Amino acid sequence: MSQMQTYHLQVVIEVDEDGKYVATCPALQGCYAQGDTFEEALVNIRDVIEMCLEELREEKKEIDLRYPKVVGIKSVEVNL
User: Fold this and answer.
1) For position 33, what pLDDT does the model report?
2) Coil, helix or strand for 58?
3) What is the dihedral of CA 56, 58, 59, 63, to 10 degrees?
4) What are the pLDDT digits (tens) for 20-40?
5) 43 phi and psi, to 5 degrees?
6) How far is CA 3 from the centre of its chain?
7) Model pTM?
8) At 35, is the secondary structure helix, strand, or coil?
9) How many Å separate Cα 28 from the centre of its chain?
10) Which of 34, 42, 44, 56 would bridge 61 by S-S if both were Cys, CB 3.0 to 4.6 A apart?
11) Cross-strand pairs, 35
């Protein structure tokens, strides 16, 4: 049996054009989920992250979650 390990991952949650909350985990390629609420999207992305990590572990691939790392979000005003 494999040893449990705790991972700390950044998640980005946005609202799409249909009002759905879309959550992505930048450190895991193709790892995304959605929900009708912020909280539902967060629960769903947790489940998807678990599945992605389990798949990497089963395939004996390295799990290196240091990058890409979200360092900030800022609104920028642009005049044309």
Assistant:
1) 98
2) helix
3) 30
4) 999 999 999 899 999 999 999
5) -60, -45
6) 23
7) 0.83
8) strand
9) 7
10) 56
11) 21
Cβ–Cβ under 8 Å, residues 25 and 31:
yes
CA distance 59 to 53: 10
| Segment 44-74, tens digit of pLDDT | 999 999 999 999 999 999 888 877 888 888 8
Comparing CA positions, the residue from 24, 58, 61 lying closest to residue 41 is: 24
Does the structure show a pLDDT above 60 at 10?
yes
Tokens of 38: 């912020």
Looking at residue 73, what is its pLDDT?
87
* E strand segments, the chain: 12-15, 21-24, 32-35
